[in-house]
């Protein structure tokens, strides 16, 4: 059976998925950060519903990829950690979401 929308070899939208972002917890972290300029570690942890250690490991992976910037500081005398998507992270997330939409809409 032949389709009139045959794509060249390697053109399936899945090739646009970002393996770093694709993992469910990392995808959730990036989606949470995409909605803000920055977010406190505890807010992201609670929003994504993971433990401190799981979030820390996943953020390390995103940071190594250049997608997340980690900033440490204090609020009063209490240490705080803020997370923010880098411009590369925002671009990668947008491209990943575009690939997901293309797959979901049957363009592949």
Compact description:
The chain is of the alpha+beta class and 108 residues long. It is built from five helices and three strands, in the order H-H-E-H-H-E-E-H. It has a three-stranded antiparallel β-sheet with strand order 1-3-2.
Task: Give your account of this protein's structure.
- By secondary structure, the chain is an alpha+beta fold.
- It has one domain: Arc Repressor Mutant, subunit A (Orthogonal Bundle), CATH 1.10.10.
- 50% of the residues lie in helices and 17% in strands.
- A 3-stranded antiparallel β-sheet has the order 1-3-2.
- A hairpin with a 2-residue loop joins β2 (68-75) and β3.
- α2 packs across α3 (41-48).
- It is elongated.
- The model has no long low-confidence stretch (mean pLDDT 91).
- Residues 25-103 form the Winged helix DNA-binding domain.
- InterPro entries: WH-like_DNA-bd_sf, WH_DNA-bd_dom, WH_DNA-bd_sf.
- This is Transcriptional regulator.
Structural topology:
Blueprint: H1 19-22, H2 24-34, E1 39-40, H3 41-48, H4 52-64, E2 68-75, E3 78-85, H5 87-104
Antiparallel strand pairs: 1-3, 2-3
Protein name: Transcriptional regulator
Domain Winged helix DNA-binding: 25-103
InterPro entries: WH-like_DNA-bd_sf, WH_DNA-bd_dom, WH_DNA-bd_sf
């Amino acid at each position: 059976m032949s389709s009139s929308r045959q794509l060249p070899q390697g053109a399936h939208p899945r090739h646009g998925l970002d393996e770093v972002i694709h993992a469910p917890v990392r995808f959730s972290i990036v989606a949470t950060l995409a909605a803000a300029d920055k977010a406190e570690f505890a807010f992201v942890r609670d929003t994504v519903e993971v433990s401190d250690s799981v979030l820390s490991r996943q953020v390390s992976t995103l940071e190594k990829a250049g997608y997340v910037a980690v900033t440490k500081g204090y609020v009063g005398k209490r240490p705080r950690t803020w997370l923010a998507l880098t411009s590369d992270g925002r671009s990668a997330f947008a491209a990943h979401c575009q690939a997901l939409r293309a797959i979901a809409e049957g363009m592949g």
